[in-house]
Amino acid sequence: MVALAVVSDGSRDSLFEAVGWMALAFVKFLVTPATAVAAGVNPVWAFVYSAAGAAIGLVALQPVARALFRWWSKRRRERGSRTFTLGRRRLVGIKLKFGLLGIAAIAGVIGVPVAGLVAFKYFGHQRRTLPTLIAAYVLWSAILTLLATSAFA
Description:
Elements: E1 7-8, E2 11-12, H1 15-27, H2 32-38, H3 43-79, H4 86-105, H5 107-110, H6 112-123, H7 129-152
Antiparallel strand pairs: 1-2
Helix pairs in contact: 1-3, 2-3, 2-7, 3-6, 3-7, 4-6, 4-7, 6-7
């Protein structure tokens, strides 16, 4: 796991600051690297915080998503709800058209919770789902941190 109390620019970052950046990365991934760099966080640590926040968030989200989907399926069966709604058809169309790699490619834009839920719903049975999403967020984090570093340099 990432060392949460780190030395950055000669000052000691607090545990709360690191956890805060990682929590922000889970909730609003797209803006976290730029916000961290603009706030004066060393770009290397901005990358680490955003990548680790997304990875930890995905690992925590996976069992929650499984339980949520199980509960929702049971609830739908009990109520006799329709299986295929317009929204569900759209999601299945995206799944068939783009697959897991398509979801991973746009993951940085749609955010960790949304990408995680969609990927775990339709690709949760595949062993490569979690590693693929984590790799995508590490790549997105590197790109966004580089863009933020060059913009604020």
